From TrEMBL:
SWIRM domain location: 395-481
Protein's recorded name: Transcriptional adapter
Low complexity bias (residue ranges): 180-190
Positions of the SANT domain: 92-144
InterPro entries for this protein: ADA2-like_ZZ, Ada2/TADA2, Homeodomain-like_sf, Myb_dom, SANT/Myb, SANT_dom, SWIRM, TADA2A_B-like_dom
Entry's localization field: Nucleus
Biological processes, Gene Ontology terms: chromatin remodeling; regulation of transcription by RNA polymerase II
Region (Disordered): 1-27, 168-229
Source species of the chain: Striga hermonthica
Length: 481
């Protein structure tokens, strides 16, 4: 007989067996669905009852009867540590949510993440997606005790008192819904707007204002926001204090398949310990870089950059490589000195041009400089218009050229003259050509590529280009007809 080793918690619309042992139902708490638990050994329904949960075995539950006789079911052993899971079918934080549903909600969020609300709702079993989002929004995100829920109204109350509160809440809710449905048609929208606009503010100095932390939707930007911030582009999450893509993001792959075994020799064990040391150093470097970014406040725009022109910003960008050798104050002073030097040199150049143009006084030189700057601005705008008109006609800078000269591109020194001509004819970069060449060669040596049609399925490019690269491999003797 084959048993399922995982605890079978599933949704069901049927009545629960042994209704006499089930917890008393409170109207408005459940939607007719039950998240059921079953004993992994006798398969008996133990939802709503005290059950024994194994700490070592993943998702393994036993009823009290099977646990009392020391039942073992591979891989579970009777000497495994365990937890006694009590009956939590009573409201705790919210009258509409039982304590076990709260636990399932948090467990689902831990397993699937904040964005996967469909999976979280399926894990809870008795609530749908919108109910889970609204409940987490209201009870957790907008709580006065964020990130914890506000437990002040339930502190010190026993289970019977909580059930009574939930029952009273459900009855009150029904009465409000009935009265509200009959009277809502009598209230005009204009009266509602006037009432809301004239209502005095009740927020006093002692009232704690809770920030609106809505889940699943982004807040609209204010007029002061200027596009996407550097912080958003970098993918940094300030609450987790980590980036979406960390520095040396593949460092963990070094340990993915490593395992310490009793059969390891001393040399193998020493090698694995060295690998751990290498991994630790890579983590230290990741942390050092992250701390450097946060310490220098590089996730936010520098106010000093707002005073600079594009040319000056590009000049400062070249000196970023020296930032790690300076303190924050030293690097700021260096940039200010460089910008000041650049402005003085440009001023000297303008004055020399003004003197060459015949200016004899400072006022004449100023007029000459202003006129030259205006001409430069007009020239830049004219070039921008010409460039936009070319783009609107579908003529790009690359499209105008009939043939590429790939001599100066990366990887061109690895190609023969014929291959350079082929890259220029097909208009692909040498690095892309080398990648195609390597992929095809590996496929040919493995026997996966025997003809041109096989090679075409390896790339998402024009099949004619793939055929030309395949022909080049044939001329080299790697591919066959």
């Amino acid at each position: 007989m084959v048993y399922n080793f995982r605890s079978k918690r599933k949704k069901s619309t049927q009545n629960v067996e042994n209704n006499e042992s089930a917890p008393p139902e409170v109207p408005g708490i459940t939607d007719g669905k039950k998240a059921l638990y079953h004993c992994n050994y006798c398969n008996k329904d133990i939802s709503g009852k005290i059950r024994i949960k194994c700490v070592i075995c993943s998702d393994f539950d036993l009823c009290v009867e099977c646990f009392s006789v020391g039942t073992e079911l591979r891989p579970h052993k009777s000497n495994h540590p365990y937890r006694v899971m009590d009956n939590l079918a009573f409201p705790l934080i919210c009258p509409d949510w039982n304590a076990d549903e709260e636990m399932l909600l948090l467990e689902g969020l831990e397993m699937y993440g904040l964005g996967n609300w469909n999976e979280v709702a399926e894990h809870v079993g008795t609530k749908n997606k919108s109910q889970c989002i609204d409940h987490y929004d209201k009870i957790y995100m907008n709580s006065r005790c964020f990130p914890l829920p506000d437990m002040s109204h339930v502190m010190g109350k026993n289970r019977e008192e909580l059930l009574a509160m939930a029952k009273e809440h459900s009855e009150t809710k029904k009465e409000v819904d009935t009265v509200g449905g009959s009277s809502s048609s009598k209230i005009s929208s204009g009266a509602v707007k006037r009432t809301s606009s004239k209502a005095p503010s009740t927020d006093g100095p002692d009232v704690v204002k809770v920030e609106d932390r809505s889940i699943g939707e982004k807040k609209p930007r204010t007029s002061g926001d200027e596009g996407v911030s550097v912080k958003e582009l970098s993918g940094y999450n300030s609450k987790r204090q980590e980036f979406e893509v960390e520095y040396d993001n593949d460092a963990e792959q070094l340990l993915a398949d490593m395992e310490f075994k009793d059969s390891d020799t001393d040399a193998e064990r020493e090698l694995k310990i060295q690998v751990l040391h290498i991994y630790s150093k890579r983590l230290d470097e990741r942390k050092r870089r992250k701390d450097f970014i946060l310490e220098r406040n590089l996730l936010y725009p520098d106010p000093f950059d707002k005073e600079l022109t594009l040319e000056e910003k590009e000049l400062c960008r070249r000196y970023r490589v020296f930032m790690r050798f300076h303190s924050k104050e030293e690097h700021s002073e260096l940039l200010r000195s460089i910008v000041e030097e650049q402005r003085l040199l440009k001023r000297i150049q303008y004055l020399q041009e003004a003197r060459a143009a015949g200016c004899r006084t400072s006022s004449e030189a100023e007029r000459f400089i202003d006129q030259k700057m205006k001409m430069g601005i007009e020239e830049n705008s004219r070039r921008a218009k010409e460039h936009s008109s070319l783009d609107s006609k579908g003529l790009t800078s690359f499209g105008v050229l009939d043939n590429w000269d790939v001599t100066g591109f990366l990887g061109a020194d690895l190609l023969s003259e014929d291959e350079k001509e082929l890259c220029g004819e097909m208009k692909i970069l040498p690095t892309h050509y080398l990648n195609m060449l390597q992929t095809m060669s590996v496929g040919i040596l493995n026997g996966n590529v025997t003809k041109k049609s096989d090679a075409q399925g390896l790339f998402n490019v024009d099949p004619n280009k793939v055929d030309k690269v395949y022909d080049m491999l044939m001329r080299k003797g790697i591919a066959q007809m």
